[in-house]
Amino acid sequence: MPEEFFGTGSVVQLRKILESEKPGKIFLVFGKGAYEKSGAEAALSQLLAGIDVFRFSDFEENPKIEDVRKGIEQFRSFEPDLVLACGGGSALDMAKSINVLAVQEGDPLDFVLKKKEIIRSPKPLVAVPTTAGTGAETTHFAVIYAGKTKYSLAHPFVSPKYSIVDPQFTFSLPAAITASTGMDALAQAIESFWSNKSTEESKGYAREAISLILPNLAVAVSAPTPEARGAMSKGAHVAGKAINISFTTACHAISYPITSYFGVPHGHAVALTLPGMILFNSEVDENTANDVRGLDYVKNMMQELLGLLGAEDAVVAKEKLERLMDDIGLERNLSKLGAGSAESRQLIVEHGFNPERVKNNPRILTAEALRFILKEIT
Ligand SMILES: [Fe+2]
User: Which residue among 154, 170, 186 closes a domain?
Assistant: First the structure.
């Protein structure tokens, strides 16, 4: 678990971290667009004055193994003492993967494919998010795409040593990114809550995240206030802590091909099946309950979730989330996103059935049920 600093202005805490770590050389990984616009560049360059910094931003959205390889090469020739990651989920995941894989011996892809084990500890990593979404600053896994396939690099060494969540860096986020990343955070909280791997601790984080995100997301998108931005940053961070324990479930599994084949941003792709999955999971019965804690547990848990969403039943909850997506400008129809044809939906089903993630879903999800959920949003 990273040592955490939270709050507007908390970026200055980097000074404390630098005093204790005393790095001579820092490998800085940042998202090209966000770094300057977010105000992070101005804040960080002051704090980094006098330190030898190598800047790496040569990567695309949704981390690709080729970009990780480029980063590893630069990392090895620079030999940093510390890694500083600043940006959205892609920048943070990129930094996490480079930091861990650069110090292992062997081909990076072998570690992603779990053919080789991570054994060497990385450099200390400081994560500074500029979006309120993935919670990547607090998780021990990182997304890597090899071709169109999404993998997760998961190991305690992947976790940042420090996280600084300063909501001021999200103040200038465009509405579309606020909407998409915010829905990622909300989906992560909801999926964590119903995950078969949830614990009392993760459910506590998920409850807190839902209660912070739900009333603030639309405000943060359409008429952002510092309060709404602060609540979103906190909510996304806490949702990250929840999935760090419970992992995500079906909506995330299904989202990856929607992102890699059809270019829908991660949070938007995850949100597409969230309303349908709430209804689907609520209709759990003795033949489909998928959590070892039993049918009654799943039913009660889903009932509590509906309450957290402020809905008296699953239909109302589904409609509430659909309305939220409309309010924040996220298209809900697969056809309008270029993914509505029968072939496209088949592709999503084929590639979205990650056994690990679908296994976490509290109701057994079959390919047929998934086809139905996708048809409903076409
Ligand atoms: Fe996510």
Answer: 170
Q: How far, in Å, from the CA of 274 to the mean position of ligand 1? A: 12
Ligand 1: centre distance to CA 251 (Å): 9
d(CA 85, ligand 1 centre) in Å: 18
- Rounded Cα distance, 145 and 62, in Å: 7
Domain boundary among 133, 155, 170: 170
Q: What is the mean pLDDT of each run of 10 residues along the chain (378 residues)?
A: 94 97 97 92 95 96 95 98 97 98 96 96 98 96 93 96 98 97 98 98 98 98 98 98 96 94 97 98 97 98 98 98 98 98 96 81 93 96
The CA 267 to ligand 1 mean position distance, Å, reads: 6
The answer for residues whose C-beta is within 8 angstroms of residue 339's C-beta and 6 or more apart is 258, 261, 262, 264, 345, 348
Note whether 168 and 8 are within 8 A (CB): yes
Same domain membership, residue 217 and residue 87: no
Map tokens 């209709």 to a residue.
283
Count of structural domains within the chain: 2
| Verdict on whether the full-model pTM lies above 0.85 | yes
Q: What is the 19 CA–ligand 1 centroid distance (Å)?
A: 33
- Give the three-class secondary structure for 170: helix
The one-letter amino acid at 13: Q
Range of the domain at 315: 175-376
- On whether both 214 and 297 belong to a single domain, the answer is yes
Sign of CA pseudo-dihedral 10, 15, 21, 24 = positive
